[in-house]
């Protein structure tokens, strides 16, 4: 199929070739006005100004009639597979309890683990499939999904098998991260080494045997996994072919960033609590810093220091962290808004972080994240907008008109 899209008001994030963007580069968002776009067999073939459009042999022509087009959101950090919401904890937080207090009393991740272990694989798949379908309609065109609510071999494998089924049945690319080290389950409360042994000697070999994961994740945080424990677990994951992708510096200066950088992590994620040493360590590495502003928003925490990270020259991605405890929304449009409003990211920086750098943060930079020949035609068609900045500016307004996946409208 050769599809020609004509009369595009603004074709956003157009790049002949693409690479990870760092520091100042993130403020450049190339746009072509009054453009056309060629799609062949689900891939972007060519683009240009309407005035340069030559006679063609398209099998189908679609008149965008003034819509703008940008690459789909690439959401590189989610916990999309879960059994139920935790709105009762939300109310406890409104009444004054902190995330850490709720977790220490058996709520939080342990609450989600109890519910997940009581649910069948089919039921979990059904719930996750519905969430994924909803996110695709909100413009997400690639996604990473973690385990981490099983906290036992059987439960973790069940989650990863659900993610594998989503991979097989969904039209958008999905990456799987093994997050067995999300918290210590109750049975191992006083025997941390016992749980680490289960992760290394039971979970990881089984995951490898079934090819269930792409990345190894650890919640490196005070009260969860120490930098040393994080390193031990990640090294075992690396031996099984999994690259680290770490929860770092969310609640405290956990040294998660330095640990991730040392281990060659593809990304270190969260970064609410950073000092100069953590920022410099990230800036001097090829690890991407993935900011999760909706988690800071939902937990009422200080936002990630995006400007300091950009000034230091870091490569930043933005992701939703969709999960029942700290970010019960996977809406990337909202993530981009909050990044501009609360973290003072420029709209150009936020859009690059949520598209191109998000794709690189899950190893999909050569396939997605920009309007580049050869990349997948996973695209957002907007309602009329005066400039890309209108997207985060008009917060709460749904500006998505249509969504395309692999060259087909969904
Ligand atoms: O990324 N902080 C660790 N993990 C998740 C929250 C998980 C939960 O509360 O269920 C996060 O915020
Ligand atoms: Fe997370």
Q: How much of the polypeptide forms β-strand, as a percent range?
A: 15-25%
Q: Can you tell me the CATH class of the largest domain?
A: Alpha Beta
Q: Would you count the extended β strands for me?
A: 16
Overall pLDDT level: 97
Number of domains: 2
The CATH superfamily of the largest domain appears as Metal-dependent hydrolases
CATH architectural arrangement of the largest domain: Alpha-Beta Barrel
* Major pleated sheet: 8 strands, parallel
What do we call the CATH topology of the largest domain? TIM Barrel
Ligand names: N-(iminomethyl)-L-glutamic acid, fe (iii) ion
How do you describe this structure in short?
By secondary structure, the chain is an alpha/beta fold. The protein contains 15 helices and 16 strands.
Fold and architecture overview:
The protein has helices at 87-94, 99-104, 109-117, 121-137, 153-169, 192-210, 227-239, 256-262, 276-283, 293-299, 306-311, 332-343, 347-354, 356-360, 390-393, and strands at 2-12, 31-40, 43-49, 60-63, 69-71, 73-75, 140-146, 174-181, 215-220, 243-248, 267-270, 288-291, 316-318, 379-382, 400-405, 408-409. Helix content is 36%, strand content 21%. It has 15 helices and 16 strands. An eight-stranded parallel beta sheet has the order 6-7-8-9-10-11-12-13. Helix 5 packs parallel to helix 6 (192-210) and helix 6 packs parallel to helix 7. It folds into two domains: 2-71 and 370-409, Urease, subunit C, domain 1 (Roll); 73-360, TIM Barrel (Alpha-Beta Barrel), CATH 3.20.20.140. It has 410 residues and is of the alpha/beta class. Helix 6 (192-210) links the parallel strand 8 (174-181) and strand 9. N-(iminomethyl)-L-glutamic acid (NIG) is lined by residues 79, 108-109, 112, 219, 247, 250, 295, 321, 323-326.
């Amino acid at each position: 199929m050769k599809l020609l899209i004509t009369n595009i008001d603004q074709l956003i994030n157009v790049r002949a070739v693409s690479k990870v963007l760092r520091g100042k580069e993130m403020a450049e968002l190339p746009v072509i006005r009054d453009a056309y776009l060629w799609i062949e067999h689900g891939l972007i073939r060519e683009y240009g100004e309407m005035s340069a459009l030559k006679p063609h042999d398209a099998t189908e022509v679609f008149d965008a009639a003034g819509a703008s087009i940008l690459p789909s959101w690439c959401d590189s950090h989610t916990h999309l597979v879960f059994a139920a919401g935790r709105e009762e904890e939300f109310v406890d937080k409104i009444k004054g309890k902190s995330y850490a207090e709720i977790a220490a009393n058996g709520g939080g991740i342990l609450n989600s683990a109890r519910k997940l272990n009581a649910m069948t694989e089919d039921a979990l798949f059904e719930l996750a499939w519905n969430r994924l379908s909803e996110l695709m309609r909100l413009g997400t065109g690639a996604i990473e999904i973690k385990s981490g609510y099983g906290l036992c071999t059987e439960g973790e494998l069940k989650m990863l098998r659900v993610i594998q089924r989503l991979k097989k049945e969904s039209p958008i690319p999905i990456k799987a991260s093994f997050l067995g080290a999300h918290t210590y389950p109750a049975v191992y409360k006083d025997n941390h080494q016992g749980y680490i042994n289960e992760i290394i000697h039971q979970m990881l070999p089984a995951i490898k045997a079934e090819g269930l994961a792409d990345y190894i994740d650890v919640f490196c945080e005070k009260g969860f996994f120490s930098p040393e424990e994080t390193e031990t677990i990640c090294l075992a994951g690396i031996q099984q072919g999994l690259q680290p992708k770490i929860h770092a510096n969310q609640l405290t200066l956990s040294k998660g960033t330095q640990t991730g950088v040392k281990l060659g992590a593809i990304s270190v994620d969260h970064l609410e609590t950073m000092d100069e040493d953590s920022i410099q360590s990230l800036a001097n590495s090829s690890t991407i810093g993935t900011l999760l502003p909706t988690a800071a928003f939902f937990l009422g925490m200080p936002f990630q220091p995006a400007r300091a990270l950009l000034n230091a020259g870091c490569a930043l991605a933005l992701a939703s962290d969709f999960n029942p405890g700290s970010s019960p929304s996977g809406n990337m449009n909202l993530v981009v808004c909050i990044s501009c409003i609360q973290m003072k990211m420029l709209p150009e920086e936020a859009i690059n972080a949520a598209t191109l750098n998000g794709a690189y943060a899950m190893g999909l930079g050569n396939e997605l994240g920009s309007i580049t020949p050869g990349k997948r035609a996973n695209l957002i068609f907007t309602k009329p907008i005066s400039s890309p900045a209108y997207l985060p500016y008009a917060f709460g307004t749904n500006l998505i008109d249509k969504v395309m996946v692999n060259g087909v409208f969904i």
